[in-house]
Structure formats: C-alpha cells, structure tokens
Amino acid sequence: MAIALTYQPFAGLTGANELIAAWEALRQELSHYLDDETIAEVLRAAVYGAQAHEGQMRQSGEPYFVHPIAVSKILAAQRFDLPVLQAGLLHDVLEDTPISKAEMAQVFGTEVTAIVDGVSKLDRLKDQAPQEAQADSFKKMLVAMTDDPRVIIIKLADRLHNMQTLGALRPDKRIRKARETLDVYASIAGRLGLFYFRIQLEDLAFSHLHPWRYAVLQKHYQQRFTNKTVINRLRQEMQPQLMRLNIQASISKRQRHLWGVYLRMKRKQSFDEACRTIPVRIITQSEDDCYRVLGVLHKSCRPISGKFEDYIAAPKSNGYRSLHSSVLMKTVGAVLNVQIRTRDMHSLAETGIIAVWHQHLKNLSLRNEHHNVVAEKYMRDWLSRLREVQNITDDPLEFYDAVKKELSSGDIHVYTPTGQIIDLPHGATPVDFAYAIHSEIGNHCVGAKVNGLPYAIFRPLQSAQTVEIITDSQAHPHAGWLQFVVTAKARAGVNHHLRSLEKKEARTLGMHLLDAALHEFGSDYAAVEKELVAYAKMQEIEINDLLDDIAYGRKQSGLIAAALLGKAKSELGQEQVLYVHSALDSGVYLGECCHPLNQDAIIGHIERGKGIQIHRRDCVLAKVSDGQDWLRAEWAEDVHGIFNSKLVFVVQDRPKMLSQVAQIIGDCGSNITDLQLERLGHRNDQQRFIMKLEVQGLEQLEKIMQQLRLIDGISQIERV
C-alpha cells in the first residue's frame, strides 16, 4: 500500500481539526529540544501514520491517530530522539493497517521499522484464545526488547496513554487492563529504572482498580501536603549557607505517588503513619556538591541515626545514584526524607538505564564512567536472563507467567565462591541461584552451602551470602521445585524438564493404547514392530510422533492396529481392552477417588496426553460418565507391586486402641502410610479413623478388614 506524502498536515482526513490540534501540542513539545529539520521528519511520520489510519476511530469517538500522536508527545516530554518519536507515531501501522514491513522500511528505514515490528502484536493472534494471544504478544515484545530496548519505551508510552483514556472501555476491560498494567508494565518500568513511566502507570492502575480508595487518599494527601511552609523554611535555613560555599542547588518537595502511599498504609495500618515524613529533593551541579550539601543539611537539621544511605559511592544494581538522609527539622518539628543528587543522576533516575545502555539516546550528558558500567551490566544481565528463558520455553503462557513472577519482587545480591556477584529477585533460593549460573547446574542441583554451611535448597537467600551448589549428574529437577523457585529462568528450566518427561509418558500411553487395540486381534505391540516402522514410513511420520498422536487422541489406535495387521475396518472390535500389570505401569494411574486394587472390576479413563486413570467400576465417576473417553480395562495375569487403599471406621476412644489396630495391620503384612483422626460431634467417646494403607491386593485388604471387625469397639468399617 503506497501513501503519498504531503506536508499540508492532515488535509482532507477524517477529524482533521482534532489531528491538527494534537500535532500542534506535540510540535510545541518538540520545539524545546529539536531543530526545525528534525521536527519536519517527525511530521513526515505523523502524516504517513494519519493517512494509514484514515477512517479508524477510537472508542471515545476521536480519530484513531490522535492516540499515536499522544504517545509521541509522551516520548517527547522525556526528550527521546527521532527514531523513537517516529516509531511512536507509527507503532500501530503494521498491526492495524495494510502497510507491510517492506513498505514502511522503504520510507523510514529498517531501524524504525524494526522497533515498530517489535511493538506490534503477532499476525496469528486473532486465531488464539485471548489469554494465549496476550501471552504470545507479550513474549514477542520482550524478545524484541532484548535486541532493542526502545521497543519497551514505545510500549510503555502506548500503555500510559491508553491508561489515561481508559474511561471509554467497559468496566471489566478497564479492570483487566489496570491489573495487567500494575503486574507487568509498571514492574518492567521499575526494573529498567524508567520511574517516569512506572509512577504514572501505578497511580492510573490504582485509580481504576480501587477508585473509591484512590479518591479518598488523593483528597487527604492534597489536604496534608499542599502547605509549602516546611519547604520554604528549609530553603531559608539552607540557602545562606549554600551561598557562602558558592553552591548552586534547588530544593523542592518530592511528590509521593498515591500507589506508594497506599502500599505503605497497608504495611503501617494508617495514613498518618504512612505519610508522617515529608519527601524532599535537592538537585546540585556536581557530585562533590552533593556531599557538601549533605553537610549543610546536617547542620540545619538533626540527622536520624541509621537513616543515611550513600548510593553515590555504592550505586544500586540498576545504576541508581543519590544520597538519602532522614533528618528532624527542629524548627517545625517535622521529619524529612531527603534525596540529594546531580541533574544527571536525576535524569537517569527518571529516564532509566536504557539511556546509558543504548547509544541512540544521546540527549543526556553521562559523565560518570563507573556509573555507566554498573547500569549497563544490570541491563545486559536482566535482558540476558530473558533470552535464556525464551530459549528454554516455547510456551508463551509459561513465559508470561515466569517473567511476571520475577518482576513482582526486588533484587538481592549474592556471591559465587569465586566472588562473582549474582543478582536475584527477593525470595530466590539456591535452586534459582544454580539456574542463574547455568541451566545444567540447575538441572543437576542436589544441595547447597551458604557461607560454608549446609543450606536447604528451598530456603530463601539473603543479600551478601556466598552460595555454593552441590550437583549430581544423576539428579534431575523435581516438580516440587515449582513451589519455591521464583526466577523466570528456574521456572522455565524445571518446566522444560517436566515437559520432556510428559512427552515420554505420552509415548508410553500411546504404546499402551495401541497394544490394547492389537490385543483385540490376538496380537500385541512387540509382534508388529517391523510393520509399525513400515507404516510410519509410509505415513511420513516418526514412530514417536505417531504414538504422541494416539495418546493425544489425534489418531485412533484401533484403525492403526487394523492397518498394521491388514484387517478391514469391519473387523474392529466394539471396544479395546487395556491390561494393567501394576500400580506403577508407565502411562497408567490408579484413581485416588476409589483406590482400585487387583481383582476389582475396573475401567479406564483416557486423560489426553497424560495417561489412563484406572477406576473401580462402582466408582461414582464411572457411574455418572456418558462413556466418552472411557476404555475397557482388566488386570493382567501377572499383576505385581504395591497398591494404595483407604479405610474409614469408627472406634471407641479407649487406651491402646491405636496400637491394637497397628498391630493387626502389621501382622497382615501391610503398612500404614497416613492416619487422620476425627472426633465425632455427637459422641465424645468415639473417633473416626481415616487410614491409608499399602497392600498387595484386594485379598490382603479384605483380610485386614476381617481382623479389624474382631476388635471390640470397632464398627462401620468401609473401604473408600
């Protein structure tokens, strides 16, 4: 689709007056830092985008392209450069118009087009379920961000304007968007140091998720903190001393964002407690001046013990630098939380470490080399972790959940035995640490030492600990690890291993189903292996894939069995029979609802891709089924192994009753694996025993029940 470029802005387009007004607001913002030639290039993208979106409207009734212009204005307020501004204007063109990447690249080049493509949703999303589509789009965006962080800048600006205009959506959509914004996009902004975006996104999400709380909190906050008396008094006390030292510094009150106040209220239980301190920011001209201003502050106000942090000498892992000090201003009786930083430090704190890491953002004068190295390392490490998770899992929902979980917490810093610093989220365990070092170390982790002492692999780590991982080449991840690991890489690594096991189980299930079908013709799986190879070759499919298809119900085992044996479809039996050899048959699971034992009449339920669950024929689930996905099952002649069973009975509450029961069960060759006692409400002298046992079969269980009935004081024995 070709678009003629015209420099008469938006002439003849639907809603031209609204588009012109939106452009004029953007142009005024651009004029503060760009020359006319560069602004003309921004206008070129605006006209191109407006023509591409011609006729499209927002739910608010505005021309659609008012939104991309507003997104670009948000970016301009943060002084982003031409490629980012053009990408902001064009960010929906590939997704919502017929224009192709090739056509856009011809006009704006590959750099801008690549950014726009990273922000765009996948073409196939319309064919997916909403949750899967959202996750797939999210994964594509984050993968693109690992190559070019400007992708997330555009997405955050896009989300910010959408949140500012969320009122046009239905309430359920507003809540869903607000929750996603809080859980994901605000968290990403915070992780990358983009606090300008994070604070606004959090407050907007708060206003939609809890509108009444937001309104009440906003009213009380404005009443409490509109008074400028404290700040004016602080200026009066400090400015004469600063002038004598020839220090130029601006002193202002920091605006607390309401979501942060709300979280503090939840911790401290009251508004007064959450807001008892006054936030202050002092901006200086140089790093040396920061320390000199600190000296003046501590002369004017009394420092509070234990409330000083030097993030200039020791920056945070994301590169953040400032001096923090809490002081008591005696003249007004107020506690101040003061940040002292240079203008460069402030710009970086607001704009984020992307400004350091990416050379396309050149509007900041970044002079501190050490700071650049710290911030760049943090950015690279975090993006590297995302790439590793992407490489481990192809499942977009799993990727989305793993990244969202990791975003939900801050960082700790631990050490390897060689002194290497590893950054991990709060709550991270030795298993998370192991995966952070290397996937194979995580996969074979069996234990850990912290500061030289044994340490449970499920215990959260603390900052400054030295961690050593103990491995075993025969060990593998366990499903239980998913209950305590927190990093995206660890969760993806464990899930990847479990999926590989599931594939093995699925193939075993497919083999079971095919074997059952072959039994109907008097054959079995071992007898047709050569025919199976030939059949798979003819069908142009791998044998393992064929077995997967049988397990997941994509192919009928009866038809394949008939084909392997050269039988006609008319010779197929009415139902297949599955022969169960033990409680541990791979791909076969005994139902926890009815605990079937050998010699019980049984039936199998096909759990697609998981296995066949065996039930007693008198199980409630079997009785209420409509026959779909149920399979005839019988015990094989050579049944072996241990089975679980459960008994419930009522006992008279008297001394040594439990020991008598245990003695009988032991004498019968069984073992108690679990016991629950319930006192009957209507009888203080009776208890109900709920007992799980290990038995070799129905005959042994019936013997146990017979012996228990002989004990005086035991009644109502039932198998469940």
UniProtKB/TrEMBL annotation:
Origin species: Suttonella indologenes
Superkingdom, natural source: Bacteria
Summary of the function given for this chain in its UniProt record: In eubacteria ppGpp (guanosine 3'-diphosphate 5'-diphosphate) is a mediator of the stringent response that coordinates a variety of cellular activities in response to changes in nutritional abundance.
GO CC annotation: plasma membrane
Name by which UniProt lists this protein: guanosine-3',5'-bis(diphosphate) 3'-diphosphatase
Gene name tied to this protein: spoT
Molecular function terms from GO: GTP diphosphokinase activity; guanosine-3',5'-bis(diphosphate) 3'-diphosphatase activity
Domain HD per the UniProt entry, residue ranges: 64-163
Pathway membership, UniProt: Purine metabolism; ppGpp biosynthesis; ppGpp from GDP: step 1/1
Gene3D superfamilies, sorted: 3.10.20.30, 3.30.70.260, Beta Polymerase, domain 2 (3.30.460.10), Hypothetical protein af1432 (1.10.3210.10)
Classification lineage: Bacteria, Pseudomonadati, Pseudomonadota, Gammaproteobacteria, Cardiobacteriales
Annotated EC: 3.1.7.2
